[in-house]
Amino acid sequence: MVRMDPKLVVAILLLIAVSATADYVRPKARKNLDFPRKSRGSSHPHQVHISVAKDKHMRITWVTDDASSPSVVDYGISPGKYTASAQGESTSYSYLFYSSGTIHHTVIGPLEDDMVYFYRCGGGGPEFKLKTPPSKFPITFAIGGDLGQTGWTASTLDHIGRCDHDMYLLPGDLSYADYQQRLWDTFGELVQPLASARPWMVTEGNHEKENIPLFKAGFQSYNARWKMPFEESGSNSNLYYSFEVAGVHVIMLGSYADYDEYSDQYSWLKADLSKVDRNKTRWLIVLFHAPWYNSNKAHQGEGDDMKAAMEPLLYAAGVDIVVAGHVHAYERSKRVNNGILDPCGSVHITVGDGGNREGLAEKFLNPVPEWSAFREASFGHGELKIMNATHALWSWHRNDDDEPVRSDQVWITSLFSSGCLTEKRHEFRKILMSP
């Protein structure tokens, strides 16, 4: 039997949330930031970001203008003293009249958990510092989607930088390059201070497509620049994958990859969920771009087909929290499944308002659906602090005149501790055995 701290019990009682629509009025969207071209050596590493690779390993990604620059990372636990080195791979791509720099991907490790490492890319250049995630609770995720590179994006990134987080989760729409490939480069520069220090785990949104029928396949830029651990998780596509960290299994699904019951993504998801041992992995979180539960007028119904195909599988597996982007407003649901309140359903959270140039989606549907607990049109970010096997604290921090203001907060109890998983095991086995 799990004993709870009395202070935690009091906090839970004080944070009972009621259905609400905030009357907050947000200023209009800000323009894209101006990025003057920088003068640097051709082998100078830039757009550095890190992501989780296989167990106890990190992938370091960076870009150089020089194709001959080595894809090597030197690293160690003391500044300027590198005790290990790893060799990786490089790629590049062309898009109409644009040619990318050389994009390097190098996996380092094994690494100690919850440890600071110092590293440099390409055998020279500046030194960077990263911190690996913890191996056990507590763990803190910063979460936000639809970033772009506007003045509001800069505000959001500043606030995330103040948050003592272990990892950043981004449910789609990164750069808002929209075919203008130089904007992928400026986005990489913009996020480097944060993305080079903590793992950024992302999935694709509609603005990553960039397909040109009969000429260019979709997601070329995204796949080349933001390589995620899809192979390590048994997926055959960079558009969907999973990873495990500190007792949390995180699944990143693709709203813009085939997802019906005959698709590769559905088959992979089914297999991935079957491998999760909930006696050891107490929390199950899923992210994708187009929300399944949305009471905003924007993008209404766009996630319905994916929801029809995959929600029964997520419900049977006991997914605790589902996070989406796409809609440029914040919304949090109560536990819901198949459109109705269900104590064994998932909490759905929409965070498609990191700072995009398109502005906020300020028009909500009325009356408020029974499943909607809180909704607000504001730029900002979320923080998910998973305290232990049974409780997590979710909070939403809006960018109120460039100051982070917490406007929503709630304790979430895991389905593991509620007894729901025992009831679901038979149901899940039936789905796994279905053709």
From TrEMBL:
Residues 141-330 form the Calcineurin-like phosphoesterase domain. Residues 347-402 form the Purple acid phosphatase C-terminal domain. Pfam families: Metallophos, Metallophos_C, Pur_ac_phosph_N. Residues 1-22 form the signal peptide. Residues 45-129 form the Purple acid phosphatase N-terminal domain. It catalyses: a phosphate monoester + H2O = an alcohol + phosphate. The keyword Metal-binding does not apply. Belongs to the metallophosphoesterase superfamily. Purple acid phosphatase family. This is Purple acid phosphatase. It comes from Protea cynaroides. The lineage of its organism: Eukaryota, Viridiplantae, Streptophyta, Embryophyta, Tracheophyta.
